[in-house]
Predict the structure.
Amino acid sequence: MIKVLLVEDQAMVRGALVSLLGLEPDIEVVGEAASGQEALTVALETKPDVVLLDIEMPGGDGITAGARIREALPACQVMILTTFGRPGYLRRAMEAGAVAFLVKDSPARELAAAIRRVRDGERVIDPGLAAAALSAGPNPLSPRECDVLAAAVDGSTVGDIAVRLHLSEGTVRNYLSSAIQKTRARNRIEAVQRAQAQGWL
Amino acid sequence: MIKVLLVEDQAMVRGALVSLLGLEPDIEVVGEAASGQEALTVALETKPDVVLLDIEMPGGDGITAGARIREALPACQVMILTTFGRPGYLRRAMEAGAVAFLVKDSPARELAAAIRRVRDGERVIDPGLAAAALSAGPNPLSPRECDVLAAAVDGSTVGDIAVRLHLSEGTVRNYLSSAIQKTRARNRIEAVQRAQAQGWL
DNA sequence: GCTTGACGGTGACATTTGTCAGACGACCGG
DNA sequence: CCGGTCGTCTGACAAATGTCACCGTCAAGC
C-alpha cells in the first residue's frame, strides 16, 4: 500500500481526488490538508510515503510546504499537482526537492500512474513543460524587483508601494521600470502578467 | 437513475468528479465535456436530466452554455459548479435559468446532495452568496464600459483599446474614467480587479 | 413631447507613470 | 584591492493616464 497525503484547498476537488484514488487497490489516502501549514502538521502525524501538493493555496503555498516536509520526513516523496504549468513553478518545485510535477489538465488516470512511478523511484515531469522551463531560463528579476512587482499586482500606486516597502517613490519607479524592461513589457500591468505567467512572483 | 452531464475543462478534476459521483448508486454520469461548445453537442446526444457546468473554460463559458442547453432541452436542469463565488456570476447564472450554484470550496458530499435536491425540484444556492449578490446590487457598468474595461485587463494601452474597439482615444479614456469611478477604484487596474471580483466582466 | 441615459466624440488640464543619468555604500569573487 | 552587482536614493524629463466640461445623436420611458 502506498500511503498518500493529499493537500488541496478546494474541498470538493480534494474529496473528488480522494474518491479517484480510492479506486486504486494499492493506494491509500491517509490524510488530507487544505493549506501549506496544515500539510506539515498532518504529514508529521500520518507519515505518508507520498505527499500530493497543490501550489496556490491560502495559508502557505505548496512548494515551500513541500520543502518543509522533506526536511522533517526525508523518506517522504513530494509531488506537485497544480492548475498552472508555469515554468518558474516547475523550477522552484524541483529546487525544493519535488520528484513529480503534474498539471490538472492531464487525464485523471495519470495520477495513480504517476504515484506508482514515484514509488518506483522515478521522476514524473511533463516533457513539454520541462522544455519550456529550461528554454525560458531562470528568473531575471532581482529579489527586490520581485517584491516591488508583487506589491503592484493589486493596482497600488507608486506611493502605496513606497510606503508598504519603506522605499522612496523614485526607487519604486526605478525597480518597476527595470522589471518592465526585463519582462519586455510596455507597462507594469503587462510586466506583472508576464512575471506571473512565468511563475516568478 | 439521475443522468448527469459533467462539464469541466480540467481533465483531472473532471475525472475525479466522475469517480466521486460514481460512488452514488442513483447517479450516473452519461457524458463529459471540456468546454461550453462541446457541452451543447454532448447534451443533445445524451439528453441528461442535469448538466453540471463549470463557468470559466476556454471555448465558451458555462453560463451561456447553460442558457443554450435550456433552450434546446427544456427538461434538463442546469447546475453551476465553480471555483469563484462571484456575485455577478450567481446573478447571471440565475438569469440564464440555472437552478443551482455551487462553489468548489464546499464539501464533496454536498455535490450529490445538491443533485438530488435539484431532481426534487428544489433550487440550491449558498445563502451567504445569495445575500452578497443581492446586497452588491446589479452591474452598474454600461455595456460599453464593460467592453472597454475588459479590453484593459491584459495591460493594453489606451491606444490599443481604441484600435481594437474602433473608438477614439478620448472616448476610451472617458469610459475608463467612468468605470474607475463607478467601481470606486483609483486606477484602471483596481477597476478591473473590482469588476472581476464582482463577476461583471 | 420632454427627459433621461447610453453612446461617441473633442479639447484642455493635472497627475501619474516610465525613463534616464547619476550618486553612494555594501558585498562578493577574482 | 578592484570590478561588478545589488540596493537605495535624487532630480529631471517625456509619455501615458485620469478628469472635466462640453457637444452631438439616438432610443426608451413617462
Notes: Chain B has a mean pLDDT of 95. The beta strands of chain B are 2-7, 27-33, 50-53, 77-82, 100-103, 124-125. The two ends of chain B are 37 Å apart (CA to CA). The longest strand of chain B covers residues 27-33.
